[in-house]
Amino acid sequence: MARPNVSVYIDDQSFVIPNSLFGTTRGGMVSNNNLVDYLGTTAERKSGVMEISSVGDWVNRLTVSDPMGGSPVSDGANHVDNSGVHATAGTLYAGRWPLGPTGSWRGEWWCVHNFLQYGGTAVIGGVGTEQHTTSGKETLKDTSIPLDVVFASAVIDGAVGTNDYFNANTTNINEVEEVVTARLDCIGVVPASGAGHTAAPSNPVNDGGGIPVSASDKLVCVWGDKKHLGIQRTGEILGQSSLLTTHLAPDVAGCMVRTDANADPWISPAGFARGDIMDVIRLAHNPTEEEQDRLYDAKINPVVTFPSEGTVLWGDKTCAASTSTLSRINVSRLFIYLKKVIGSASRNYLFEMNDSQSRTSFVNAVEPLLTRIKNRRGIYDFRVICDETNNPDAIVDANQFVADILVKPAKSINFVKITFTNKNTADVI
């Protein structure tokens, strides 16, 4: 029998503040062209979910051998195996794509590729054989699959070959809206233009080409398309006529990845510090200042090229009403973040006693979290109320626990006003 002794433990019930609750920021995309089926492992094809953590992994999926490619190929004429021999259409595991994606799914492939350049993890929702058997959209509605952002996929809009346009259609946009509306724990990014547009719409509200129908603080609308290089392993030098054109929703989602890694979710992903667009040769159309004004008034964030400075996201609006503080990306993501962190940690209080000790414990846990966010420029001020005033006898008798958290979110700068005053030499300054 052990001797009498005293053991001392430190019970740390404080909340932590990770940049992403799940490590690397996770971006979801719905696939309607069997990406998971073509490029997924056996386990991924069963679950209907494919997770890709790097550009290298994604490119390797084009050439890796069995067990990838669970369905017979339907575009065998465009397939070649690693020896350069064309595959036979309908043959299981018949070929790979060592020269780059050539299937009907190549628009989706490039959307994932463009997102991964920013360092996030891509979560592709498809149709599984054992789980998530309905649709890619319904797959990503499953909140057990953690997501931080959802971006629109693309279909092929243009000539088949090296000079492809990868555009988002109404289905792609509506899927994002449905997913974020169902989940309420992530933000969605959709394009407001088709690829290859040569001018911003004169009336963005009516002819923006893909503006979400709902005024949602969970949706971000971006205008613009980038021309970029494709994968070319034959040694051929790609000319301007061979550039690919892809909408910018995956890149804007990628800017949020970069922001999470280098700053915090409650910091705006726009501008020169965090809004730089990667792998862009040029924009399909660089909007004029007048076009930028029209787009921004319509809650559409333009991507703009500034000569000698770069191509950047030049706006941080959500689709929420302009009168709401949630009309800015950083504020919307702040509250999503608070909901995840505090909501998850609050489960520790389930089945505890509803008394002053539990309430004080909750306040003592939440306030340091909010203080740290305040110190990191996420909020101006806050107040946590969890006492007898919002937990009267009737609430306690109903086995409920109520906490009210008042937050003043920090605002991003959208307009800079500088006044120069001309003073005489003899004037005192």
Describe the model.
This protein is globular. Helix 4 (106-116) runs parallel beside helix 8. Residues 7-14, 66-87, 89-94 and 233-240 have low confidence and may be disordered. The longest helix has 20 residues, at 356-375. It has helices at 35-39, 42-47, 55-60, 106-116, 136-140, 170-183, 204-207, 249-262, 271-274, 289-297, 329-345, 356-375, 393-397, and strands at residues 26-30, 49-52, 121-125, 149-151, 155-156, 165-167, 187-191, 219-223, 225-228, 244-247, 282-283, 301-306, 310-313, 379-385, 404-409. The chain has 429 residues and is of the alpha/beta class. It has an eight-stranded mixed beta sheet with strand order 2-3-1-4-7-8-12-13, with helices on both faces. Strands 5-6-10-9-11 form a five-stranded mixed beta sheet, with helices on one face. It folds into two domains: 26-62 and 97-329, Rossmann fold (3-Layer(aba) Sandwich); 350-429, no CATH class. It starts with 25 loop residues before the first strand and ends in a 20-residue tail after the last strand.
